[in-house]
């Protein structure tokens, strides 16, 4: 059984889309199982349907206004350099209303349902492909994997949305008596789950560099410092997931094909700049192409 696993990574998901496009359209890869965390959960239903052009259009036209109904960020571009600051007014409104998050992402749920239709859901559910998204149950402090075969349309769209909610900057969701957030908090790269579900070969797209190439500048205010802290914590989750995944793969003789980003794409993956995302998609395609050619050359030798 062949599987595709796409990690969390916010706007960097565009890079994963480019990698997947090459693997599916140029190499002819077909997947029986597709697992995604956060931005990966947005990609996998469309990839499973073969709607690469559609998800490319979605990712290269998205912006902050399509994600946030209350945006906690202010993005400014000065001399070609993008800087992210706190939106004091929106955050203050959240505090006044007694909310527990700095922003809300209810528009993202509408965007998901607009672009992933009921007929597409039914087509996937009746197919042989298994689609699984990762969420974090904060009330129980554990990871949960939600399979399309176990839910109806509205509820599965909820799980896709919940998988992407990077709290405390996006919505905290209560469902079935528990509170949920981004799947990346508990399983950023769900390689082990793919193996548990029977995968024998896995293409894994990891939306981070394999090694740190340069020191990361740390935020100069409490808000940006919090973002940097969360990024550091998620980096540790990612490393843990990859180590455990490699051990499980070795134990069960599963082939892993790992695709990292060759460079650091952004310091804040919660900023959705469609021009950057269009560029990252193209970079992902070229990276997968070059990696595939290098692997072919090695086999010939």
Task: Explain this structure.
This protein has 301 residues and is of the alpha/beta class. The chain is 46% helix and 19% strand. Strands 1, 2, 5, 6, 7, 8, 9 and 10 form an 8-stranded mixed β-sheet that branches. β7 and β8 form a beta hairpin. α1 runs antiparallel to α3 and α1 packs across α11. The longest helix is centred in the last third of the chain and has 31 residues.
The ordered H/E elements are EHEHHHEEHHHEEHEEHEHEH
Rg? 18 Å
Number of helical segments with 4 or more residues: 11
Count of extended strands: 10
Strand content is 15-25%
How far apart lie the N and C ends?
A: 28 Å
**What is the average of the pLDDT values?**
91
Largest sheet data: 8 strands, mixed
Shape: globular
* Unreliable spans: none
């Amino acid at each position: 059984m062949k599987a595709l696993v796409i990690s969390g990574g916010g706007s960097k998901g565009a890079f994963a889309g480019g990698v997947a496009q090459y693997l599916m359209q140029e190499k002819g890869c077909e997947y029986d199982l597709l697992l995604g965390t956060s931005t990966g959960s947005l990609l996998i239903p469309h990839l499973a349907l073969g709607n690469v052009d559609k998800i490319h259009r979605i990712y290269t036209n998205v912006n902050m206004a399509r994600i946030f109904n209350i945006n906690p960020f202010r993005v400014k571009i000065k001399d070609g350099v993008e800087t992210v600051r706190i939106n004091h007014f929106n955050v203050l409104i959240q505090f006044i209303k007694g909310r527990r998050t700095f922003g809300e992402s209810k528009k993202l749920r509408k965007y998901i349902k607009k672009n992933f239709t009921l007929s597409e859901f039914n087509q996937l559910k009746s197919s042989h492909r298994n689609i699984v998204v990762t969420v974090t149950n904060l009330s129980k402090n554990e990871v949960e994997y939600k399979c399309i075969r176990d839910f109806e349309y509205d509820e599965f769209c909820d799980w896709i949305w919940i998988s992407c909610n990077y709290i405390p900057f996006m919505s905290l969701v209560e469902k079935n008596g528990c509170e949920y957030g981004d799947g990346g908090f508990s399983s950023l790269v769900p390689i082990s789950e793919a193996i548990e579900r029977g995968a024998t070969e896995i293409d894994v797209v990891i939306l981070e560099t394999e090694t740190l190439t340069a020191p990361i500048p740390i935020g100069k205010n409490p808000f940006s410092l919090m973002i940097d802290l969360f990024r550091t914590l998620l980096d540790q989750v990612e490393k843990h997931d990859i180590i455990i995944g490699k051990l499980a793969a070795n134990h069960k003789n599963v082939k892993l094909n790992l695709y990292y980003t060759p460079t650091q794409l952004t310091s804040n993956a919660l900023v959705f700049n469609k021009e950057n995302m269009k560029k990252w998609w193209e970079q992902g395609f070229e990276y997968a192409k070059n990696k595939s050619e290098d692997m072919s050359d090695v086999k010939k030798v």
